[in-house]
Structures are given as C-alpha cells and as structure tokens.
UniProtKB/TrEMBL annotation:
Name of protein: 2-aminoethylphosphonate--pyruvate transaminase
Organism: Oceanobacillus jeddahense
Broad enzyme group: transferase
One Pfam family named in its UniProt record: Aminotran_5
Catalytic activity: (2-aminoethyl)phosphonate + pyruvate = phosphonoacetaldehyde + L-alanine
Length: 364
C-alpha cells in the first residue's frame, strides 16, 4: 500500500519512532509498564503547567469520546446542572451524553462560525443559580474555530462554577495555562496534538474537585474517580489497558518535549496553517472561519465553485500522497484539511501544488 500523510484531525501521521514502540509486547502487571503510566501522568501535568499538589492526571481507555463521557458521568452529582456551550458537533455530542446520563443542563448554542456571547451567558448564569458546571469545547474540530477560553474562564471564576473543557484537539498544540484558566477538568486524547496513536484519553483534573466525585458515576467502566484511585496507587489501570498505545504515547510525549514543547509545536502548526490558508486562497478556496477565530489545528474550506466534486478531488489528492477530511456542516458544502501530526511546511507546499494542478489554475 502507498504511504500517505494524514491531513486529518486524528488519527494522524505519527513518526516511525512512535510506531516502533509498538513492536514490543508489554505486561500490564509489570513494574516497567506501570512506570510508563506514571511517567506519562507526570509529563502531562508538566505540559499543563500544573503542580502535582493541585492537579492530577487520569488516563482512560477508549477514544476521546469515552473520556469526555467519563468526566460528564463522574464530575456531576444528581442535583447539579451544567451550562453546555456549543458551536459545533463535538459540543452537541456532550449534550447527547448529558441526555444519556440523565443530567440537568442548559444548552446554549450559537452558529458554527460564531463565538458565544458573554452578555447572554451572564444573563443565563445570573438567572439560574442552580447551574453548577460550565462545559465547553476549546477547539471545535467541526470547523476549526478556536473558542475564547479566557473569556469563559472569567465567567466561571466570577460565578464560581466548575469548569469542564474538551481540549481534545488543542491540548499539546495550543498553549494553555490550565491553573490560571481555572480549568477543573481538561480532556484530551492520545491521537491528537501529542501525536500518539488512538486508544485512550486523559483528564487533567483539579484534585479537590475529583476527590469530591466518589459515587457520582452511573457507569462502572467510565468511573473516572475509581480509575484515579486505582491508578494513583502505583500506575495500574483498572481493566486491560492499550499497552502498545501507551508505550507509543510515552515516546510521543518525549518527542513533543524534544521539539521544544507546546510553544514550538504551536509555531509549527501555525506556520503550516498560514501557508495552507494563503496558498489555497490564491487558488480560489475560501476558509469558513475568519482569520481571528481560526485555530492552527484544522481548517474548513468552502467548495470553490458549483461544479467542484469532493470525492473526485479527494481521490486525486490521495493518489498524490495526502488524505483530506470531508466537511461536517449540513447547510454549506465544505471539506477540511488538518495541520496536526508529523507534517511540515514542505508537505503543505507539496499539497498546495497538487491542489493547484487539480484546479488547473495558473498563478502569475
Ligand atoms: C477528536 C475529538 C473528540 C473525540 O473524538 P473520538 O472520535 O472519540 O476520539 C472530542 N472532541 C473534540 C473537540 C475532538 O476533536
């Protein structure tokens, strides 16, 4: 099979050295493996700039959605109520979870290319004191919009609410001061900006918040509190963990640190994203999200004309070594190009040349 670069929001293109870690079979009971788990947990706290006195990390089997659900079922008590802020399908997925779990919530939603309105949020918070939690998605991977987390953070502080952030597609690629933002539960997964392979997610949680969550969960396997209590002893996961994935992730974190940490990775993603947007604009592709709201993670592009055929375009580009992503908007025809993973400016240049070739555009 021909190799190609994934320009997708995860799973993404990983390094050969990350993949090589998976050639060794490890035992979940063995101390060497438990040490890897503990090392990962410490490194994640460092990346989050969070102290081990105030924060802890819990790893959870499954894709990112499982981890979001584990937070939603563990962090809220029966009488609690969440204000769920959405402008995309990942936010809407959290609303769906709330329905499954049977949580009380207020759903505040805005258009997929818009920011939540602070005045409206203030109004909701002032008029409904039963709200205990604020839930938002940081980078909405649906469109690539980077939501104004600082502004929402101010509201959670002002009104003293527990703050849950789905930072799945941004953590590791966008700098965030988690203690400063007052985030109580931050969720991400192995196969996004840290550039591991899929198989588990993680939560960076404020210790005293998580400590108060005993007995909340209505799911055994997704009980984040129980998982924490077991893992905190000496790095043992409850139930079978994805050993190969964990080993690969450990390598991926080391490589992130070697690259220069989150700020360096952000710079690389940002440069790639700018180059992509500028080059495609010259070829007649308009981005759905305005520059000032665009994340460096993934970009949504509108079809350039009425005759544009995504499937044909997709196969043409794939043949030349790049896999793109379909759009997720219902009313507008779009497609997406991701920047995360082992992707460099030379790759973006090659991609743009391929697209130019496809479009038959002559740039003077
Ligand atoms: C990737 C992602 C998830 C999790 O998706 P899975 O397919 O379950 O891994 C959740 N939220 C956001 C914003 C994401 O980008």
């Amino acid at each position: 099979m021909e190799q190609y670069k994934l320009l997708t929001p995860g799973p993404l293109t990983t390094t050969d050295t990350v993949k090589e870690e998976m050639l060794f079979d490890r035992c979940t009971w063995d101390q060497d493996y438990k040490n890897i788990t503990q090392k990962i947990r410490m490194q994640l706290l460092d990346l989050a700039e969070a102290s081990a006195d105030d924060y802890t990390t819990v790893l959870m089997q499954g894709s990112g959605t499982f981890t979001v659900e584990s937070v939603m079922t563990t962090a809220m008590k029966q009488q609690d109520k969440a204000l769920i802020i959405t402008n995309g399908t990942y936010g809407e997925r959290i609303v769906k979870m709330a329905d499954y779990i049977g949580l009380h919530y207020h759903h505040y939603n805005v258009a997929y290319n818009a920011y939540p309105n602070e005045q409206e949020l203030k109004y909701i918070l002032e008029n409904d004191p039963s709200i205990t939690h604020l839930v938002m998605v940081h980078c909405e991977t649906t469109t690539g919009i980077l939501n104004p987390i600082e502004k929402i953070s101010e509201l959670t502080k002002m009104y003293d609410k527990t703050f849950i952030v789905d930072a799945m597609s941004s953590f590791g690629g966008v700098e965030m001061d988690i203690p400063e933002l007052g985030i109580d539960f931050l969720i991400s997964s192995a196969n996004k900006c840290i550039q591991g392979v899929p198989g588990f997610g993680f939560v960076i949680a404020k210790r005293d918040e998580l400590q108060a969550c005993e007995g909340n969960a209505n799911s055994l396997s997704l009980d984040l509190y129980d998982q924490w209590k077991e893992m905190d002893k000496e790095g043992k996961w409850r139930y079978t963990s994805p050993t190969h994935v964990v080993a690969a992730f450990s390598k991926a974190i080391d490589e992130l640190i070697a690259e220069g940490g989150i700020s360096a990775r952000f710079e690389r993603y940002q440069r790639n994203n700018r180059l992509l947007r500028d080059s495609l604009e010259k070829l007649g592709f308009r981005a759905y999200i305005t520059d000032n709201r665009q994340s460096p993670i993934i970009t949504t592009f509108l079809f350039p004309n009425d005759t544009f055929e995504f499937t044909e375009f997709y196969h043409y580009v794939k043949e030349k070594g790049f896999v793109l992503y379909p759009g997720k908007l219902t009313e507008i025809n779009t497609f997406r190009i991701g920047n995360i993973g082992e992707v460099y400016e030379a790759d973006i240049e090659r991609l743009c040349n391929v697209i130019q070739e496809y479009m038959g555009v002559v740039i003077k």
